[in-house]
Amino acid sequence: MSAKAKSILRGIVVAAVVLYIAFLLGPIAGFDVPAIAASIQADPKQLIQFLIIGISNGAIIAIIALGYTMVYGIIELINFAHGDVYMIGVFTSLTVLSLTGTLNTNDPVKIILGLALALVVSIASCAMLNATIERLAYRRLRNAPRLAPLISAIGMSFIIENLGLIWASQSWLVPSFGTTGGASQKFFPDLLGTIFTVNGWKVNLFEYFGIPLRFTIKDLLVIVLAVILMVGLYLFVQRTRLGKAMRATAQNRDAAKMLGIDIDRVISATFLIGGGLAGAAGLMAGLYNNTAWWFMGFRAGLESFTAAVLGGIGNITGAMLGGFLIGLLASFSDGYLNARWTHAWVFATLVLVLLFRPSGLLGEQVGQKA
Amino acid sequence: MNENIKSGITFGLIGGLLTFLFGGWSVGVLGVLMGIGLGLALGPRFNPRDGWMSLAKQALPAAAASGAILLVLSLLQNYVIDPAIGQNFEDLDVVIPANLVGVVGGILFTCIVTALHGLSEEWERKGKIILLGLVILAFPFVDKFTELRWTAQIIFALIFVILGLGLNIVVGYAGLLDLGYAAFFAIGAYTTGILSSPQHNIFLNFWLVIWIAAGVGAIFGLILGAPTLPLRGDYLAIVTLGFGEIVPVLFRNLIDVTIKEPLTCWILPLFKIQTACITFMSHEDLTAGEKGINPVGRPILPIIKLNEAMGIELVIKIAVLLVALALITFLYIRIWRNGNRKVGSVASYAAIVAAILIVFLPIPRTRVAVFDNVLGIIQPGEFQSDNPIPWYFLIIAIILLSIFLINRLRESRLGRAWMAIREDELAAAQMGIDPVRTKLLAFAMGATFSGFAGAFYAAYIRGIFPSVFDFSASIIILCCVILGGIGNINGVIVGGLALMTADRLFLPALKDFLKGLLDHTVLPALSSNPTLQAAVGQNANPILYRFLLFGLTLVIMMSVRPEGLVPSAQRRMELHAGEESGGTPVAAK
Fold first, then answer.
1. Which of A76, A93, B5, B367 is the most exposed, fewest CB within 10 Å of its CB?
2. Prediction ipTM score
3. What local confidence, expressed as pLDDT, does residue B307 receive?
4. Could you give the percent of chain A with pLDDT greater than 90?
């Protein structure tokens, strides 16, 4: 038998053993093939429904992942606090909506104006916050051993989570927070739904076409906004002078410095843009999922970090792809496996990608640097 | 002003301000602790050649200054602060002895500790160990007498000290940043829970389970460490974080486990072949999910009496036990050194095992009478929740054992291999160190100690809940290691104690203090503005800010003092040698 045939045979045996173990132990974590097959057979439309949900959630994850991937691309740091900046974005928009009285109105014009203001404020404050984090916690450590900034980033993440916890208990700021303290999940009002129902429009856009699925105005808005932001970012990085400076810094910081690029400014700008994207994602996620929670940044952060790694960290297109893939994984896992195991499946993906293809789907061999 | 007096005033202020939080007898305890701290700070400043008497005299002014500050603040606390937070002030029969003990004890201990520096190096070391031993031994009894109720919280701090010591092996010695260390803590705790609770109707003895937990921890250290071997730096950290998140999810969700053999159950039936479906497990609840496993079995120790107040009697019992152990050790050393080594060591090991069996194994009640007749002091007893003293000594014993083992490990070939890997993996591999084996053993050894901690924790709390072991627990352990000083046992102990006492003791006390102050002084003054009043009342709860405490610790330590509060000698030397090496403890690249 030739060596090639041998290796193929070995591959088949390994695959069979892995599959057998997956089928044997998978059902514990919801991976129950007969049950999944049965539920797909029973209602095939659901598959498309989960696809829609996955894409919408994936769009939000992708936008957060962009922040991770840009920062990693430039200073090779996992900005652990990034997910929590996104959480601050949710709370900022909720607070702006509350202070402007948008939460208590049914007037579509007022709601749209309020949302626009919330988007601007959220983007601005998250961008500032992210740049401040860089200034306070990472800049000093730029020449320190690599793990020092990571530890500092984890510390920053804790600080911001604590900020969110305190914020979520300020019922004088947002009355709907109630008096139960900051630890519980808070409601983020469904403003887009309100606009539609008040005017007698159908919230589910597919109803106009008679398609028996749900594709709401929220899905549409999230996807459209995400695509606009991603394309805008892509053009910015590829076409503008600052974008070029960013790419130069990412390739070789010292060489970029020699060519007269102000490294500190470029890095600050990267953090500003990443934070701004997280702020936008915050408002979108609040409107889409209708919850605000001080701990939501941790999970979203890890999901989007997984997305960034899956797509190839440092690669902007990869982060978008990874975001949509992770969104789909989470949505299918919620739907067909079991929602309580989704967290573990996402992490398992992260671990598997890092172990077997640390460069990601579209990335170059950055894994070797790690 | 003289530098020493300044230190004295600083220590006096720290001690005095802490009395604001606790009141009552705390001034006595804090005074003595403050004295020891001040002595340690002053000692190295004096010239040891002056002799110990002279040193004690030189320390006197600073000690007196700290004592005076302490006295003033303590009296202020009693007569001004207490009424402001709505408490009656203490009676004179507490105030006078407590302040006397605090001030006189503080001055005395400052002088004693300073004087130790005037002794020869060997005696200085011995003196410090004796002093430390006395403080550790006396603490729970003093705590009980003064009714401060600190011991139960200190035990939590000590659990984190063990966890920190274990994590220190992985992060400090081997340089592998592990962000999911709480997973091993969880594995230790759940092993204990499953093996000694009604969950599966298995009731093993705690003294056995703690070793099983350590062993299971080590095995999982290998299992979870193996996949991370090809990774370095932050990717390694993230993968360990992933494992650290997956493990609690498993424990949370293994509540309805069905394992069916797939071939017979649905692959063959797919091809219309009828077979009997082999089912290994059907709807088993392994971990009780969010409900948690409880009650977990507690340790039983013959020398502790059931439901009886502790006191002098326990001191005598422990003293007898210590004397017996000392005798065994002495015999061991004697025989091992002078006689036939093989026979000697076997004999002494047998003696130690016999002693442990006699002391630790539960004795059926019928045989108790015999023991009573022979020694008159031994009775079986289960550790109780309302009496932290046995728990305290148990965890001190575990810590001492851990320190001993870790010290031995560090100086062994393996320990040196860890540090070589940390400094430069490639070079170490070239020198013949097997990186795979070395790293795996680092994970396994680190996990062993968290197995101890997990077993103790499960038994102490009597219940295990998955939410305890999430990401924040991993980071809190990391915080303890980083605050104290990566790679240094003393540093980790100091860091763990400082951080966890701050978390467990000072924040709750501060909360009560602020609440009292607000309710009786501040809020009535704000009654004109109800919104502000509500906002102030709601947010003035320090417990809400505990994540801030840990986060700030990490950020500040990393940028200001990355080597930790008590850096290891090697780090200190590296830092003095030059800044270009960075000297940051996490040297993994």
1. B367
2. 0.89
3. 40
4. 42
Q: What does the DSSP 8-state code read for residue B434?
A: -
Q: Which candidate, B466, B556, B485, places its Cα nearest to that of A159?
A: B556
Q: Which of B329, B355, B374 is the last residue of a domain?
A: B374
Same domain, B412 and B351: no
Q: Which of B259, B553, B562 is nearest residue A25 as measured by Cβ atoms?
A: B259
Out of 3.80.10, 1.10.3470, 1.20.1510, 1.10.287, which CATH number does the structure's domain A38-368 have?
A: 1.10.3470
Residue B538 at interface with chain A, using a CB cutoff of 8 Å: yes
Residue with tokens 């507490």: B94
B48 and B162 belong to one structural domain:
no
Is a pLDDT exceeding 70 seen at residue B368? no
A1 pLDDT higher than 70: no
| Token reading at B492 | 């980790």
What single letter denotes the amino acid at residue B388?
P
Chain A residues with CB-CB distance to B238 below 8 A: 78, 305, 309, 350, 354
Of B177, B246, B262, the CB nearest to A347: B246
DSSP A206-222: GGGGT-SS--BHHHHHH
Q: How many residues does chain B have?
A: 589
Tokens 């960075």 label which residue?
A: B582
| Residue to substitute from A36, A138, A158, interface B, most B β-carbons within 10 A | A158
| Burial status of residue A23 (CB atoms within 10 A of its CB: 0-12, 13-18, 19 or more) | buried
> Does residue A119 surpass a pLDDT of 50?
yes
Cβ pair A155:B551 closer than 8 A: yes
Q: B260 — contact with chain A (CB < 8 Å)?
A: yes
Q: Which two tokens stand for residue B368?
A: 């108790």
pLDDT for A230 beyond 70: yes
- Pairing state between β B257-260 and B202-203: unpaired
Strand, coil or helix: A77: coil
Mean pLDDT of B414-422: 92
Structure tokens at B547: 């994540």
- Alpha-carbon distance of A299 to A228, in angstroms, equals 25
Q: Which helix (H) or strand (E) holds B457?
A: helix B435-461
Distance CA B347, CA B336 (A): 10
Cβ atoms B180, B244 nearer than 8 A: yes
Whether the pLDDT of residue A31 is over 70: the answer is yes
Listed residues B115, B147, B179: the one ending a domain: B147
- pLDDT tens per residue, range B549-573: 899 999 999 888 888 888 777 666 6
Is there a single domain that holds both residue B97 and residue B159? Answer: no
Spatial separation of the C-alpha atoms in residues B281 and A28, rounded to whole Å = 10
Beta partners for residue B196, in sequence order: B203
Q: Within 13 Å and on the Cβ side, how many CA atoms surround B91?
A: 2
**For residue B305, what is the DSSP state?**
P
Q: What is the dihedral of CA B44, B50, B53, B56, to 10 degrees?
A: -30
Q: Specify the amino acid at residue B238.
A: I
- Identify whether residues B98 and B246 lie together within a single domain: no
Determine the structural domain holding residue B20 and report its residue range.
1-147
Measured from the Cβ of residue A239, the count of other Cβ atoms closer than 10 Å reads 9
A112 near B CB under 8 A:
no
Residues of B whose CB is below 8 A from A143: 582
Query: Residue type for A320, please?
Result: M
Q: Say if strands B279-284 and B257-260 run parallel, antiparallel, or are unpaired.
A: antiparallel
CB contact under 8 A, A28 and B266: no
Q: Which among B170, B229, B246 is the top mutation candidate for probing chain A, defined by the most A β-carbons within 10 Å of its own β-carbon?
A: B246
Query: Is A355 in CB contact (< 8 Å) with chain B?
Result: yes
Structural domain tally of chain B? 3
**Which residue of A147, A156, A338 is in closest CB contact with B588?**
A147
Beta bridge pairs of residue A10: none
> Are the beta carbons of A141 and B558 separated by less than 8 Å?
yes
Per CB-CB distance under 8 Å, the chain A contacts of B564 are: none
